[in-house]
């Protein structure tokens, strides 16, 4: 069996999948597509709490593909629903035989996190990334684990830096780094990263007019610029010299007030736009009031 592509589904869609594919359990002979659908049925059954149906699917899949890594992953998923500690032991046994099974490793890490064993999840994920360094999503998961595990934001930022190295043109990774730096209190670094997001998502696009309203991730980045610049400006105004020290060694901007004014102007443009861009304009009154109060 080769790996399928799964799509996130709502509960009604999952119920429909369960109802549609349930007759496969009574089929005497299964074609190539039917085996994949049987696997889909098993996961849909788990989503709907029908472990009995998932068990029946597993029995047939084991008979047809006793050594399949995907069937092993399904077996682990079924164990997770009823005996999570047994699932962890099963995953450990599989990984002892094949440490390159990324699916099993990820299921183990996800289960550890759901069980609240965050420190062990961090350890396992770090070990996983020693083998699968290019898994950007795993670096994001590690960053999130660090952030939720005793507020270890410095380590979270370090993990995010690896994701950025793997996908340097992805503005969402940079945005997450910016927001983490802001939460950690490293305002100069956060400001630099928010501006980088603006540059990536609203930069030298030949098809984009210079005064076109910001959209999507760019709007969120401008909010970040506004917040950082305002706080840095206040710190300078109250006599703290050039502003706060940056844990990352990032230099504070010399013209925070100008950046704050620019961010306010771009947010006004974003929330004043009409047509398709105007979809973002819900709550414009609150935004205008917030921008005006901070000017």
Q: Layout of helices and strands, plus pairs?
A:
Elements: H1 11-21, H2 32-47, H3 51-64, H4 69-82, H5 84-97, H6 102-114, H7 118-131, H8 136-148, H9 153-166, H10 171-184, H11 187-201, H12 217-237, H13 256-272, H14 284-294
Subcellular location: Endoplasmic reticulum membrane
Main location: endoplasmic reticulum
Keywords: Endoplasmic reticulum, Membrane, Repeat, TPR repeat
Write a short abstract of this structure.
The protein is mainly alpha-helical and 295 residues long. It has helices spanning 11-21, 32-47, 51-64, 69-82, 84-97, 102-114, 118-131, 136-148, 153-166, 171-184, 187-201, 217-237, 256-272, 284-294.
Task: Tell me what you see in this structure.
The structure is a single chain. This protein is mainly α and 295 residues long. The chain has a domain at 195-294. It has 14 helices and no strands. It has helices at 11-21, 32-47, 51-64, 69-82, 84-97, 102-114, 118-131, 136-148, 153-166, 171-184, 187-201, 217-237, 256-272, 284-294. Helix 6 packs antiparallel against helix 7, helix 7 (118-131) runs antiparallel to helix 8 and helix 10 (171-184) packs parallel to helix 12. The longest helix is centred in the C-terminal third of the chain and has 21 residues, at 217-237. It is elongated and about 75 Å long. The N and C termini lie far apart (60 Å).
């Amino acid at each position: 069996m080769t790996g399928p592509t799964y799509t996130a589904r709502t509960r009604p869609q999952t119920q429909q999948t369960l109802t549609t594919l349930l007759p496969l359990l009574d089929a005497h002979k299964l074609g190539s597509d039917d085996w994949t659908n049987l696997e889909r049925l098993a996961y849909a059954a788990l989503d709907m709490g029908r472990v009995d149906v998932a068990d029946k699917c597993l029995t047939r899949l084991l008979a047809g593909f006793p050594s399949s890594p995907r069937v092993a992953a399904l077996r682990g998923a079924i164990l997770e629903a009823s005996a999570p500690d047994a699932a962890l032991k099963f995953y450990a046994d599989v990984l002892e035989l094949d440490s390159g099974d990324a699916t099993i490793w990820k299921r183990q890490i996800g289960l550890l996190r759901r069980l609240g064993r965050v420190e062990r999840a961090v350890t396992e994920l770090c070990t996983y990334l020693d083998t699968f360094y290019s898994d950007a999503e795993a670096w994001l998961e590690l960053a999130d684990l660090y952030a939720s595990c005793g507020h270890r934001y410095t380590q979270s930022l370090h993990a995010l830096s690896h994701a950025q190295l793997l996908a340097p043109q992805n503005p969402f990774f940079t945005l997450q780094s910016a927001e983490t730096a802001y939460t950690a209190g490293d305002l100069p670094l956060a400001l630099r990263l928010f501006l980088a997001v603006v540059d990536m998502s609203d930069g030298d696009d030949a098809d984009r007019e210079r005064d076109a309203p910001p959209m999507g991730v760019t709007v969120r980045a401008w909010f970040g610029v506004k917040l950082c610049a305002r706080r840095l400006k206040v710190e300078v105004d109250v006599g703290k010299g050039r502003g706060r020290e940056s844990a990352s060694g990032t230099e504070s901007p010399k013209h925070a007030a100008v950046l704050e004014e620019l961010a306010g102007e771009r947010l006004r443009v974003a929330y004043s736009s009409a047509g398709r861009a105007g979809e973002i304009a819900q709550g414009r009154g609150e935004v205008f009031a917030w921008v005006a109060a901070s000017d």
